[in-house]
Amino acid sequence: MAASCSDMFSFCVSDQSQAVSLVKVRFINNIKGKGLFATRNIRKGTTIFIEKPVVCAQFLWNAVYKYRACDHCMRSLETAEENARRLSGKPLLVLPHPEQCTIRKELHQACPQCQVMYCSMECRQAALEQYHRVLCLGPSKDDPKHPLNKLQEAWRGMHYPPETSSIMLLARMVATIKQAKDKGWWQNLFSQFCSRTANEDEEIAHKLLGDKFKGQLELLRGLFSAALYDDRVSKWFTPEGFRALFALVGTNGQGVGTSSLSQWVHGCDALDLRAQERDQLDGFIDQLYKDIEKETGEFLNCEGSGLYILQSCCNHSCMPNAETSFPNNNFLLHLTAVADIEPGEEICISYLDCCQRERSRHSRQKILRENYLFTCSCPKCLDQADDPDLTSEDEDEDDDEIDAEGETEEAELEDEMTDV
User: Fold this and answer.
1) 156-174 pLDDT, tens per residue?
2) C-alpha dihedral over 30, 31, 33, 36, to 10 degrees?
3) Would you tell me how many other CB atoms lie within 10 Å of the CB of residue 46?
């Protein structure tokens, strides 16, 4: 049973019919695979769709370092003030305009068996119905000998910050199928995500785990099997199947970042204040950024990754016409047009950040080959095809000079806190 076209839209929330009317998924070729295309005019600024993930998980080291998030939707569980105090190292800090914080701690719920925290009863119930019955550790939560705890500890010992994936994303895929009534539907849904060749699978594993990836991958497979083996997905537990599953997550996993403090900043930015009050508030926020940068550095958000069935169809362009964001302080992904898009035009996002997109074609191609295993042929790269293949050394020297001035880092910090 193949996943139908409607299944590709089944995780869209809010107005699902709008997404169906705006876009369609189309096979392009064996190299690019599927793509997402506009079916009518989409104006700049339009939210094309809002999508929840098939599965999502917080990064393990992120959780260890006390970034408290809902175990299902990744909504920050700290208030904006608690978040600001921890990140700035100022335990007595008081934020003005506390009404701009959207966290409602009275709604938080813990699993009665393992005490995992959720932002609401709805999230607790959704997790229980999809995968948590299989993954709940109950009284063994702190037992280092429990198979799931051993699996997570092994992953933490192999994949250090900055994190890009989580072994628990794979665990939740297996647990979802084990719990599901219609197991075939879920298996076929997971099969819709982009797959790679055996050699590419190895390259992705190498990137995630480092030079010793072959031995580490086999160790993870053994622990994964001990914790979760199921005959109905037995192929995922073979050496080749586990490597392919690992690569599926590495290829399709979308980073998720949530922050109650970021939401508070957005709320403050929208306040209608007198000029003097605006200057005072902006000055307070600017100083807070500096304090956080000094105390915490670049790790500001609750971070994790998720698998988004429709968003995963978006290919890369160095001149994207759409971008993803998480403005709701949870795992809901918003795809928004950043340019006018015509009917029949492919909707593309960028796998590079703003600074990387401004680098030379040679540098962009190098980053994309190393991290995503493809050579970009977007209009920008084709237009610059005759540019000299300069090495990145000159650009890196320029970057070092800018970093030494400190201005770029501060601007990037502010962008990260306000763009989540």
Assistant:
1) 999 888 888 899 999 999 9
2) -130
3) 17
